[in-house]
Amino acid sequence: MAQGLPRVSANVVVPKPSLQKVFDNLRAAGFTLVGPTVRDGTVLLDEIAGIEDLPVGWTAEQGPGRYRLKRARDQEYFGYGVGPRSWKRFLHLPELKLFSVNKTDGKWALKPTQGTVPLRAFIGVRPCDLSAIGIQDRVFLSGEFRDPHYARRRERIFILAANCGRAFSTCFCTSMKTGPKVTEGYDLAVTEIPDVFVMEVGSEVGSEMLRDTLWAPATAFELGRAAQAVQQAEREIERQFRTDDLPKLLYDNLEHPRWDDVPSRCLSCGNCTQVCPTCFCVTVEDTCNLKATVAERTRVWDSCFVREFSHVHGGNIRPTIRSRYRQWLTHKLGSWIDQFGTSGCVGCGRCITWCPVGIDLTEEVKAIREKVTR
Amino acid sequence: MSVAPASVELRMMPDPMLPHPAVINAIKSEAYGISTFSLVFTNPAQASTFHFQPGQFNMIYLPGFGEVAISLSSDPGTPQVLGHTIRYAGSVTRAIGRLKVGDMVGVRGPYGSAWPLDKALGKNLIIVGGGIGLAPLRPALLSVLAHRGDFGRVVLLYGARTPADFLYTDEFDQWQTGGVEVHTTVDLADANWRGQVGVVPALFYRIRVDPKQTVLMTCGPEIMMRFAIYEALARRIPRESIFLSMERNMKCAVGFCGHCQFGPTFICKEGPVLNFAAIEPFFGKEDF
Residue A99: which of B18, B258, B269 has the nearest Cβ? Predict the structure, then answer.
């Protein structure tokens, strides 16, 4: 017998194997599933087929410059921490062809990129990463100019968020006020407790996807267990990061001696900007065929750590690693607030984990604060 | 779907990164390696609706080469023909330099902030230019000349490396006759130069300034603007009355690429024309 549907904002419990039914419903509705899966020694985000692709029973040990995938003691579906990929690669593409130009008899005709954007269901979006999507929304959709490429992808996603039941050593979402529990912007939000998923319905579509999942209204006991799980994650967070004096602290200390110390460690590799879920900088690449009759423009992710990033005729605005690291940190934690009304940091810790030399931005800011120059 | 689905309007919106075809209808050599390219949109509808304000810029695109941010240097009163004074400095501008009248380029714009001429109404105006920095100031000058009676004393302080590097020299007489005092200087004179030799800020010693009644607009190398602003501050021109046009690497001009950031400022959005009071804490910071 067909089951009814829960209303929006209801809390329900869903048996764990029924997650496959949610996936089936999503696929039947035309969604491609994108979620965490174990690959290349990490938990990566990519297309998945079903629950068997989820990193069930996997976790990772994370630290500055360190990530080691390992077996967990339990068989949790959502026990993993964030990996090197973030969701931005599915909304703000690493490489996007903007248009091509065909030239005949000296006249050229411009052809914008066409193509359909698939409906995608993001499975297991962490609270920090959900905040990051909200931040990129502001970058691409809130200004005078809006990015139609981002908009087209953004409006075609379903979000199944996953509240955190544990924290990893590089996490600091509580300092950035982005987690460990989602507050808005999801279709379904799952909190994993030992026997079942507690799910909060965030939208009509979210409710629809619970059809025939054997869901039941959550009891006070189950809600309590879910709240405890989130509290557990909150307790496990080791990194605390003071943010109330930003961006002023950074603006006032642009000549702090700590900036001179960074280049002795920073390789200017740009890993932090590639793994960051909010870093949005791009450059444009122009190519043409040998006869110069067909040309293309492609937008690709860039990084402020690239030397040419600030090149102008006659020289480079930021020729040193000191100036490039200062630009990145001052933007991420400081000027971002002036530009978009929010910090550019969500506390996911990726830039710490994936820095090959383990530079920790929270430590850098602490060092600047400890010996304030002005 | 879930969060803030994009509106229909947004979905239908054309990509702001798409250039519009335009044809070069005139090329005027200004100085060694610098020419003014006059462009006309091939789409008549586009040509008739395009308007710009003094100080704004366009993105000029050449297929296969790339795109460059170039200030509009022509009269905003005649926006059907768009002048861009270009120095052949990099791969794109050098390729543009090889184009002929009738060739096509892509244009999108206009972008950025404008010289706030309204703030100078009834006041004295000092325009300080260095080298090709006069290009974005020219539309302001032409607008002032078109409404000369609305302004007090108008002074142009202009310097170039050598006498051969001055732009728009054929217009100086016209500007003087129209009521703009023109003072020039060069870094390096030649045998025929009878004028001043030295840096642009030194030209301030030629003029008298009534600080509360003066607005200053400057564009040129950052170091020149910095010292011109020091001269202005020394004469007690208020920070709020000082405007400068900044330059940074720019890939998109619409706030997506991140390249043109200058502290909290996106040069493509809040700039290129900025009020000095707003950016003073960051201006002149080494490698910033």
Answer: B18
